[in-house]
Write a structure and sequence with these properties.
7 strands; 7-stranded mixed beta sheet; single chain; alpha+beta
Length: 164
């Protein structure tokens, strides 16, 4: 899903399942409210429960389009299979769809209005707004997913076998 803020990746790691979970546990901080933004000890925070995890990268500043990472770890014949899904936070996804639909609605009303007295700016401005917003969402999301992909590949010595 190259053009949407969603990724589904399956890794294969040569480490056994217990070792993968131990490595993840050592590398992921428990999710806490950070009042003082001291330098993080670990790169990621979240919950690791059994063979499942739900994490996000600890960043300085704000990036509303940062992916939420959920994953499962399962034994495989060649080591361990790690299935990961990266997607936008639900609130950000709902807001983005709502905002896009509102702008598209204004564009449709402009184009189909009965008086037909609109200028090119009336049509181009909403189109420009949609394009800029789409690029902002995708670029914000994809830059963070690249960092997370590299994190999993290096941490678990993993190879990607499926990338949707």
């Amino acid at each position: 899903m190259k053009y949407l803020p969603f990724e589904h990746i399956i890794y294969i790691s040569p480490f056994p399942q217990d070792e993968v979970m131990a490595i993840l546990s050592r590398s992921v901080d428990r999710k806490t409210v950070r009042i003082f933004k001291n330098g993080p000890v670990k790169e990621y925070e979240g919950i690791i429960d059994g063979q499942r995890f739900k994490i996000s990268r600890i960043i300085r500043g704000r990036n509303s389009f940062q992916p939420r990472i959920t994953g499962t770890v399962q034994p495989d014949t060649t080591g361990t299979r790690i299935e990961i899904k990266m997607q936008l936070h639900l609130f950000v996804l709902i807001f983005s769809v709502f905002w896009g639909l509102m702008v598209a609605g204004f564009l449709i009303v402009d184009v189909t209005s009965a008086n037909m007295s609109y200028s090119y700016v009336d049509i181009l401005l909403p189109i420009f707004m949609l394009i800029i917003f789409y690029l902002m969402v995708i670029l914000g999301f994809k830059t963070e997913t690249k960092k997370s992909r590299r994190f999993f590949e290096q941490l678990l010595d993993a190879k990607i076998i499926l990338d949707k």
